[in-house]
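User: tokens in, sequence out, please.
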């Protein structure tokens, strides 16, 4: 985070995501603030190719594209699951492991297969979320969050989205897929990154 982070003064903010599960969580996390949230899908904004090599680079590509395309501040979230015994995979390729059209059942089977192939007993993993808040004039602020835990198979729970049914956060027995949204927001990687974003850029709201 920059030493003097720029505050968000406009009350309109574009959410530069085409993932409905993420957009729902971002809306919940921004609920206490009087910000009018506009979805990228609704504005018909272009979904850029994620050509970065890090979460932060991809978050910046998405936020910049939406800020320039809309003329408004835009917030992007690049996130994923880093599995320790897989050297951090699927990582920034977490969405791509689900194929097209996306099928996270298949992505979770692939994670399990790749883990079993290694013969490891280390099922530790973390979820990472990098937020980029970008303004149309090119200014950007970046915030990173994480939650550590372990994987379990078969998947459990129908709440949440993506890889939630195989991830048990440290100190808990339930998967994110079994937890109520508020319980996930108390500890998630996305909530961690949002805490930092709010402190830096939204405290005036
Ligand atoms: P946008 O780029 O349009 O926001 P996306 O789904 O392509 O949507 P990412 O490239 O950041 O987003 O992919 C992140 C993937 O990681 C996402 O599709 C989920 O499957 C997974 N993921 C991220 N956060 C998650 C969470 O809280 N719970 C479960 N899976 C999560």
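Assistant: Sequence out:
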């Amino acid at each position: 985070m920059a030493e003097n982070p720029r505050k968000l003064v406009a009350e309109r903010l574009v959410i530069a995501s085409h993932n409905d599960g993420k957009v729902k969580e971002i809306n919940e996390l921004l609920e206490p603030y009087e910000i009018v949230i506009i979805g990228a899908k609704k504005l018909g904004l272009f979904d850029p190719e994620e050509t970065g090599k890090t979460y932060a680079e991809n978050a910046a590509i998405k936020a910049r594209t939406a800020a320039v395309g809309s003329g408004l501040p835009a917030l992007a979230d690049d996130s994923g699951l880093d599995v320790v015994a897989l050297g951090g995979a699927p990582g920034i390729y977490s969405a791509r492991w689900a194929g097209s059209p996306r099928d996270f059942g298949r992505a979770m089977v692939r994670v399990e297969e790749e883990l079993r192939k290694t013969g490891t007993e280390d099922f530790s993993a973390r979820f990472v979320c990098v937020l980029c808040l970008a303004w149309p004039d090119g200014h950007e602020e970046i915030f990173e969050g994480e939650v550590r835990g372990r994987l379990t198979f078969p998947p459990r729970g129908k709440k949440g989205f993506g890889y939630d049914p195989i991830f048990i956060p440290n100190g808990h027995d339930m998967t994110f897929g079994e937890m109520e949204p508020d319980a996930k927001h108390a500890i998630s990687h996305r909530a961690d990154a949002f805490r930092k974003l709010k402190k830096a850029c939204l405290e005036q709201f």
